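step: validate -> pass
step: tokenize input -> pass
step: predict -> running
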Amino acid sequence: MTNMEEWDKFLENLHSNALSAHRNSKEYDYQTQRRTQIDELLATSLSGEQKHFVEEILFEMGLEQERESGIVYRQGLRDSVWLLKHLGVLA
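step: predict -> pass
step: emit ->
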């Protein structure tokens, strides 16, 4: 495994830990309740075809947001390490 692959694996583990911590938060509980309310709204306000179309769009938007969050998270960690190195905190 190359250094870059090890670094990416390390960042992936940090991201997973942060995500796990978030899923145990009150904010996550609120978001889960809100998603349930939105699902109920979709079920009662839209026809079957409309609901499927809206769910597909929301799913795609969620995937994009997930990818973007991962990219920003990893870049933030890289930037932090770079800054600490330039400040002389890390060798």
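step: describe -> Residues 3-86 form one domain.
step: cleanup -> pass
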